Amino acid sequence: MTKKIITGVKPTGSSMHLGNLLGAVLPFKNLAKGNDAAIFIADLHALTSVKDGEKLRAQSLELAIEYLSIFGKDTPITIFRQSDIVDITKLMWVLSNVTPFSLMARAHSYKDFQQKREELLCNISLYDWRIETSNEIKEMMGSIFPNPELQKKIEDELIKLKLINDSETKRLKELTDSYENNLNMWVFNYPILMAADIIGYDVDAVPVGKDQIQHLEMTRDIARAFNKTYGQEVFLEPEAIITREVETLPGIDGRKMSKSYDNFIWVFDDEKTMKKRVMSIVTDSLGVDDVKNPDTCNVFSLIQVFGTPDEIASIREKYVTPNIGFWYGHAKLALLEILQRYLSEYRNTRMELLNDIPFVETKLADGARIMNARLEAKMQVVREVVGIH
């Protein structure tokens, strides 16, 4: 049976990397088959972190281009900007009226924000204590060791420690101020907007990872609270589609590929940049004629994901065969060729879309028209139930 499904992506930074592609984008594309699927550019949610209007507009457009490049220009998936939905914030306000404060206070995002702030304050206190202790040590050592040369060495070391402590304290206080400034009501209330993004369109199911289940549970709680408050089943309680955990994709340093680690390979890198990233993948120091273990090699881990079965078997054989002059550099060049072939269709489509922005804007406008009509139909019921025009 066809289901209405939806997901959203915040336009808060750089392009998608290979981990995003395999972990979220392609799984949603597959899940959309046979369903009524929509994805929105969550530019209203992005206001919590992007404080530059021009940048936000540019990042939103780029994200739309990238998703159209991967889904296809003729994709049946509805793509739209969140801010193009006329009544979405009105619905959020209505839902706020039935959402308990205690529910928002339990949100992972808010609690994590608070915890990071408290950790910073704790670290500042620690550095202040170290500075105070350093002064006490200086006085104590001066009385125990009256030798001027030794006192001078102790003092020099304590000055260095104080400079380090002062620098770290300043950095931590700047971070704390940043957290203070960004811990606003939007951070606290955003789960209510997220609920509106889902139940406003009568969505049946939402694809989520295990770490996102709480978000959907809060949405169900809000829908249930509204229905109970007004004594009518106005909103559906959407089910979760637990997305399959994909194997962690290693970055160029061997850790999980992540923007925060700066160890990623972009999907839409130009050939020169991609080659630089691939050739910098960390390996061990075995020589060109040594037998190598493909199962512990970061390069081969990526080859296994993106290569064909024949390519994987052939390259594996080279790893385990001695004295054939096969080095990690050869494996990296093979990976580079595999990635360029795998990503070529996406990259070619992106270039076409970059040269036809009106097409992208038309697709977004079409998506907004479809989703505005859905939300308006729901809002007619909501307005009647709650007594507003």
- The average pLDDT value, as a whole number, equals 85
Radius of gyration: 27 Å
Overall CATH architecture of the largest domain: 3-Layer(aba) Sandwich
Q: What is the helix fraction of residues, given as a range?
A: 55-70%
Shape: elongated
CATH topology of the largest domain: Rossmann fold
β content, as a range?
5-15%
> Which regions contain 5 or more consecutive residues with pLDDT less than 50?
none
- What is the number of helical segments per DSSP (H or I, 4+ residues)? 13
Q: Kindly, what is the distance between the CA atoms of the first and last residues, rounded to a whole number of angstroms?
A: 35 Å
* Major sheet summary line: 3 strands, parallel
Number of strands: 5
**Overall structural domain count:** 3
Give the name of the CATH superfamily of the largest domain: HUPs
The order of strands across the largest sheet is: 1-2-3
Name of the CATH class of the largest domain: Alpha Beta
